[in-house]
Amino acid sequence: MLSNFLLQINVAGTPALNEVENVVSEEKTLTIWQLVSSGGVGGAIIMIALLILSILAVYIIVERYLSIKKASKEDANFMNQIKDFILDGKIDAAQSLCKSNSSPVAKMIEKGISRIGKPLSDIGTAVENTAKLELNKLEKNLSTLATISGAAPMIGFLGTVIGMIMVFHKMASAGGNIDVEMLSEGIYTAMVTTVAGLIVGIVAYIGYNLLVAKMEKIVFIMEARTTEFLDILHEPAV
């Protein structure tokens, strides 16, 4: 008797379970592309622009990071060798050593060595100018990255405004027959552009500050090596 009762419960409950499964299976899922395309031409243009900016930002971050990391590598014995060559009067050997090294420090020291025999003020100026040129090369595209970090959120917000305008336009066109699903789809589209813009902006902002911090380290190293080089030039006169 008990088994028959349980069997009846299971059989009776089967349609209800099927209805629940059908409801779950009919739940609407939207991909990012569907959200973008539902926003019309304006939403698609905004998302394409943000995609281009994201690719550009990632490229700049990776490319500048590798370049700055390479420039920050320093041979511990480089300045000691330069000092020995200069004190021994082997200027050509010192210049050859600098040319064999592609770091910014080596290039500015090479410029200073080529000015040996002139007043120290002239040598110091030449070294500083070379350092500025090398830093300018390392800072390539950093301003673009900073622009992306600020512009991407604003572009995303522009997409949000466009999406909301479309929502209100649909409301006005529908009159009293407002479709909640139609409105929610437009709002989804508007929010997606904001999220995309914020993500691109945050990545660009973090990358920019990371690169700036590494640049400051290189500036400190170059200033220290400039002072060390000028001190070397003072030694023979002591």
TrEMBL record:
Protein name as catalogued: MotA/TolQ/ExbB proton channel family protein
Keyword ATP-binding found: no
Pfam assignment, any one: MotA_ExbB
Any single GO BP term: protein import
Source organism of the structure: Vicingus serpentipes
Taxonomic path: Bacteria, Pseudomonadati, Bacteroidota, Flavobacteriia, Flavobacteriales
GO CC terms in record: plasma membrane
Record keywords: Cell membrane, Membrane, Protein transport, Transmembrane, Transmembrane helix, Transport
Superkingdom of the source species: Bacteria
All copies of domain MotA/TolQ/ExbB proton channel, residue ranges: 103-223
Membrane topology (UniProt): Multi-pass membrane protein
Localization in the cell: Cell membrane; Membrane
Membrane-spanning intervals of the chain: 41-62, 142-167, 187-208
InterPro entries recorded: ExbB/TolQ_transport (IPR050790), MotA_ExbB_proton_chnl (IPR002898)
Family as reported in the entry's similarity comment: Belongs to the exbB/tolQ family.
